[in-house]
Amino acid sequence: MQLVQAPDWQQLLNQLATAAAIHNPRGLPISFVPQTALPETMAYEAFISDTGLVPTRENLHDFFNALIWLSFPATKARLNALQAAELAKAGTLSGSGKPRGATRDAVTIFDENAALLVVREGATAQPLVAALRGHQWQSAFVQQRALFGNEAEVWLFGHALIEKLVRPYKAITAHTLVVSAPDDFFSWSDAVKRNWIDEHVATLLATEGCSIGQLTPLPVLGVPGWAENQDDEFYADTSVFRPKRAV
Prior knowledge:
By secondary structure, the protein is of the alpha/beta class. It has 2 domains: 98 residues, no CATH class; 124 residues, no CATH class. The strands form 2 sheets. A 4-stranded mixed beta sheet has the order 4-3-5-6, sandwiched between helices. Strands 1-2 form a two-stranded parallel ribbon. Helix 5 packs antiparallel against helix 6.
């Protein structure tokens, strides 16, 4: 509520970022600045990497991006490091005139549209993961409904995904990374959970990189409790809950 009511929300975001000592991959403090600070000849990601400054427009999309920086700073920094490394490999700071490549595409999709499915380590949640990866929606969302909240939690990460949910529609689909968590995770406070997720996902990205193959589709309003009237007819809508394509 404090942030929403702030007359200058970018200033308050910067105060929060400073208080939390949020920094970019080079250790420079993150600060949210007007979009006009971004040079025309420099890619957005390279600018953040070089300066710690995040160009931020007066819109919901960039507002949510800033909130994700505050919520998952290590993961955001790691994504920025991956983008900057790809730009350097391509020999460009502008990002123009060069193909984006698979890694930059995957990082952008993760940054914009990722959700994180956190599941308890061990065998209990593996049928749920298998059902989601196999697009077996009835199995995942109906037959294994009780696992959500007890053995599995969905956390939103992508700022474009969150923006879509301001005016939700049934077909909103996230690119989802499955994260295995220890038993204790499900008894922690939300703040402790968020910090653990942030550090764990940042480490995964550092060691395994980022690729589309790591992500699986998740119609987010199919998550139990995330929409009204989640009856059999709701999940029978194959325009949203699509079967997996035959290979």
